[in-house]
């Protein structure tokens, strides 16, 4: 049910607090008054007999006031039930009223009886607690404050005060309806929820990596933010789709250990030389497919790789920045440098041409910069993820067109960050959750066997 925001909502919490205390006082005073009447009727003379219940009541009310205050402040943060939702609704209605009033987006007139509110914008809100969404109807009513709503300015304020992410905005007759994700954890997927299909890799509820459309991915993030886990969740899903996966991990961290799995045997590389060579192998396979597709198209057939029953190939390149750094310092003209130069040039070609041919790159790195991630590759990364809170420089590098304020999502939980699919809004999100005791190799084998079984 939609709730209308009213002028008086600016004090909603205080008003409800006072009313609850008043109610509590009445409930407590009634038996005391009856007790006093009884004392008077029985001719009781000791003053303390009258005084003590009064003190007890005042103490009870003070304790109740304190308890209610703490309940309102802290209960909602730790619980998810009808009471915490009531508190959230109260808080939100108050926040919205304050937003309108503090910006003077209402009119006051006066008559013989005094001042009254002659215009207050008709804003209505509704929560869907199970999906973690907030729907906000804003007026498109021709009034002078309308532009603040239609320009998206009000939506930005909502994002800031509610720590929410704008998902979609729809214009309907007389109203603008904006949908916000206000509780990112509600959109988190568990490993068992991951149901990848051809062309679709799950990231969170409602957002998938549709690699045929938003080809090439980058996952950036500092040490300990959950970058590796995010990459695992993608790798496991891709193994259900295709066996053509190559993994590079020049720092020999968690991904490198996957060479010991049956699923990725002979497909994981970590030495500099191996990586440089294997980039070229991947590139050659892509060019071979290009030639095959050209041949098919000679007959006038049209389409992309999947239309001709070719399978997608994925290149997982973790610690891409470290690979660049290791190589740019090698001597010009040395064999190592030559293979790197070829590999880097191949990477640029794969990033550019791979989409049509079904050859995709997933780059993992700590801090993308102009030096570590060449522009020609950066411009071809269409699905972007930053784990943890990025520095302003990294934020600008990964999401250059977004002016969204990025805020930390959780102090206690790991595996949160920000995601942008194509040129859509940047969203805060939690990566798919890995349960405690999870074994990476067993899971990878299981995902691989799912593909083989199907
Ligand atoms: N999606 C997740 N589900 C459950 N736990 C997670 C998730 N992501 C991160 N964590 C927790 O955070 C820790 C650090 O994550 P991870 O190893 O992925 O970080 P990283 O950024 O790759 O750092 P490093 O470069 O040191 O590997 C993990 O050991 C795990 O306990």
UniProtKB/TrEMBL annotation:
<dbReference type="InterPro" id="IPR002543">
    <property type="entry name" value="FtsK_dom"/>
</dbReference>
<keyword id="KW-1133">Transmembrane helix</keyword>
<dbReference type="GO" id="GO:0005524">
    <property type="term" value="F:ATP binding"/>
</dbReference>
<protein>
    <submittedName>
        <fullName>DNA segregation ATPase FtsK/SpoIIIE related protein</fullName>
    </submittedName>
</protein>
<feature type="domain" description="FtsK">
    <location>
        <begin position="204"/>
        <end position="396"/>
    </location>
</feature>
<feature type="transmembrane region" description="Helical">
    <location>
        <begin position="21"/>
        <end position="38"/>
    </location>
</feature>
<keyword id="KW-0547">Nucleotide-binding</keyword>
<dbReference type="GO" id="GO:0003677">
    <property type="term" value="F:DNA binding"/>
</dbReference>
<dbReference type="InterPro" id="IPR027417">
    <property type="entry name" value="P-loop_NTPase"/>
</dbReference>
<keyword id="KW-0067">ATP-binding</keyword>
<feature type="transmembrane region" description="Helical">
    <location>
        <begin position="50"/>
        <end position="69"/>
    </location>
</feature>
<keyword id="KW-0472">Membrane</keyword>
<feature type="binding site">
    <location>
        <begin position="221"/>
        <end position="228"/>
    </location>
    <ligand>
        <name>ATP</name>
    </ligand>
</feature>
<keyword id="KW-0812">Transmembrane</keyword>
């Amino acid at each position: 049910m939609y709730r209308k925001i009213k002028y008086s909502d600016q004090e909603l919490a205080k008003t409800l607090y006072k009313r609850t205390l008043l109610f509590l006082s009445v409930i407590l005073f009634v038996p005391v008054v009856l007790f006093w009447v009884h004392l008077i009727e029985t001719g009781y003379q000791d003053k303390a007999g009258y005084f003590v219940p009064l003190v007890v009541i005042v103490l009870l009310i003070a304790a109740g006031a304190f308890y209610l205050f703490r309940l309102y402040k802290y209960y909602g943060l730790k619980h998810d039930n009808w009471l915490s939702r009531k508190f959230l609704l109260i808080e939100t209605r108050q926040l919205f009223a304050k937003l309108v009033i503090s910006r003077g987006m209402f009119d006051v007139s006066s008559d013989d009886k005094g001042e009254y509110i002659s215009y207050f914008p008709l804003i209505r809100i509704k929560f869907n607690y199970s999906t973690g969404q907030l729907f906000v109807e804003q007026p498109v009513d021709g009034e002078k404050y309308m532009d603040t709503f239609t320009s998206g300015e009000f939506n930005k304020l909502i994002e800031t005060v509610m720590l929410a992410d704008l998902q979609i905005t729809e214009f309907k007759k007389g109203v603008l309806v904006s949908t916000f994700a206000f509780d990112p954890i509600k959109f988190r997927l568990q490993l068992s929820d991951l149901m990848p299909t051809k062309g679709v890799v799950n990231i969170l509820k409602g957002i998938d990596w549709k690699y045929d459309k938003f080809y090439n991915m980058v996952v950036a993030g500092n040490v300990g933010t959950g970058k590796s886990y995010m990459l695992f969740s993608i790798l496991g899903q891709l193994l259900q789709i295709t066996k053509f996966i190559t993994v590079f991990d020049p720092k020999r961290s968690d991904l490198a250990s996957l060479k010991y799995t049956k699923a990725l045997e002979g497909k994981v590389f970590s030495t500099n030389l191996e990586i440089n060579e294997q980039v070229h192998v991947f590139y050659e396979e892509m060019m071979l497919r290009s030639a095959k597709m050209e041949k098919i198209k000679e007959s006038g057939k049209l389409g992309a790789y999947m239309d001709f029953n070719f399978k997608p190939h994925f290149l997982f390149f973790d610690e891409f920045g470290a690979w660049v750094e290791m190589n740019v310092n090698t001597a010009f003209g040395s064999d190592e440098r030559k293979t790197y130069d070829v590999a880097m040039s191949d990477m640029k070609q794969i990033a550019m041409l791979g989409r049509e041919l079904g050859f995709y790159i997933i780059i993992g790195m700590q801090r993308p910069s102009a030096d570590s991630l060449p522009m020609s590759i950066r411009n071809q990364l269409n699905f972007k993820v930053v784990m943890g809170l990025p520095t302003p420089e990294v934020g600008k590098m990964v999401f250059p067109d977004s002016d969204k304020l990025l805020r930390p999502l959780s102090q206690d939980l790991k595996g949160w960050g920000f995601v942008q699919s194509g040129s859509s809004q940047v969203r805060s999100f939690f990566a798919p959750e890995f349960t405690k005791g999870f074994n990476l190799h067993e899971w990878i084998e299981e995902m691989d066997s799912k593909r083989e079984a199907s």
